[in-house]
Design goal:
Length: 365
């Protein structure tokens, strides 16, 4: 049986009122887990929604106030940065489609609450990548901190340009032409995603993916990523997206049909399975039944449960056991296996392990 401390953060997200009975040691552990998971600000928002902020002890309240301040500052920074992007790509022939966290902020979605950011992701057609990159470079964004091998790897195999960092503001932009690499086992049609993108009210020129596609992209990103330090945060994104969209009784039928159309049913299957496990997300039995065909074999599913119940927990010592390092390595290998066939993957991993560490260019003084 898992010690209760391992599930403290997810249990608190499910039942926030439990904090009224917390001891000082409970609070100490919760704050450490939430900070490791990138969920301190989102937890503060949860407490505020449930009218619990005034009940928090003074010695912990400031942690949540500070996290909310940072999240609010980042939200304003993202909105301002989107305006800079829109201006930089003013000559771009097509909508500027924003993905993931920045999309939640732009569209004013509940999933924006308490969301912290590392970068801003946008989606453009493959044929417009050179134009988009040139325009962004003129506006101050450049690929930095990558070896020549990594740059070639991005441009030849990946579904995005090398990350672009602004020379003055240090903001990072990921410019995608697809949501999975060309070499991946699944090939969702990017044109279908772009064709259903919707304009954002009050944000001229800014578009976001359709409701169902936002969920599918979030699920796909989560279950094709080999490094998941903020896996629980990404699960809470999905939880908030689904609770918001689920108010439409036809949503789940459209979502499962769209997942099948885009070859993303397996990712959605895993998403709803672990959303129920960690967050008790309300998912209709009809949706689970519709995704049964996408489930792996019973043996594979048992293995995935042992992996993902560990790697989606906060990356904190209190949430780990003796098998957690193996689970994290397994998730890393699985993600790369899904992204690249063996004849490309093995040379790539060999290069990263044994050659890249000796090819780093020293930083300028």
């Amino acid at each position: 049986m898992r010690p209760p401390s391992r599930d403290l953060l997810s249990r608190t997200l499910r039942l926030p009122d439990a904090v009224t009975r917390f001891s000082m040691s409970d609070w100490d552990l919760l704050i450490r887990q939430a900070r490791a998971a990138g969920l301190l600000a989102r937890l503060a928002h949860c407490f505020r929604q449930h009218g619990l902020m005034d009940a928090l002890p003074t010695y912990v309240r400031w942690h949540f106030d500070a996290a909310e301040t940072l999240a609010n500052k980042q939200r304003l920074a993202v909105l301002w940065e989107l305006k800079q992007l829109r201006d930089a790509l003013a000559d771009f022939d097509g909508p500027l489609i924003v993905l993931k966290g920045a999309a939640y902020v732009a569209a004013g979605l509940p999933a924006a609450a308490g969301r912290l950011f590392n970068d801003i992701d946008i989606l453009v057609p493959r044929e417009y990548l050179p134009q988009a990159e040139s325009s962004l470079m003129l506006a101050g964004w450049h690929a930095t901190g990558l070896s020549e091998y990594d740059k070639r790897y991005y441009r030849r195999w990946m579904h995005e340009l090398p990350p672009l960092q602004h020379v003055q503001r240090d903001t990072v932009i990921d410019v995608h032409h697809a949501i999975l690499p060309d070499t991946a086992r699944y090939h969702p049609d990017s044109a279908k995603l772009r064709s259903r993108a919707v304009a954002v009210d009050g944000q001229p020129g800014i578009h976001v993916l359709a409701v169902e596609d936002r969920v599918l992209h979030s699920a796909t990103h989560l279950f094709h990523d080999g490094e998941l330090p903020h896996g629980l945060r990404d699960l809470t994104d999905l939880d908030l997206l689904l609770r918001d969209a689920g108010a439409d009784r036809d949503f789940w039928l459209r979502l499962t049909a769209r997942a099948d159309e885009l070859q993303l049913s397996r990712s959605l299957f895993y998403a709803v399975r672990y959303l129920r496990h960690f967050l008790d997300t309300p998912i209709p039995d009809s949706a689970m039944a519709a995704l049964d065909a996408a489930a792996p074999s019973r043996a594979t599913l048992a293995l995935m449960d042992r992996i993902f119940t560990r790697v989606l927990a906060p990356d904190h010592a209190s949430c780990a056991d003796a098998f957690t390092p193996t689970a994290r390595l397994s998730a890393f290998v699985r993600a790369h296996w899904l992204r690249m066939p063996a004849h490309l993957l093995i040379p790539h991993l060999f290069h990263k392990a044994f050659i890249s560490p000796y090819q780093r260019t020293p930083k300028a003084a």
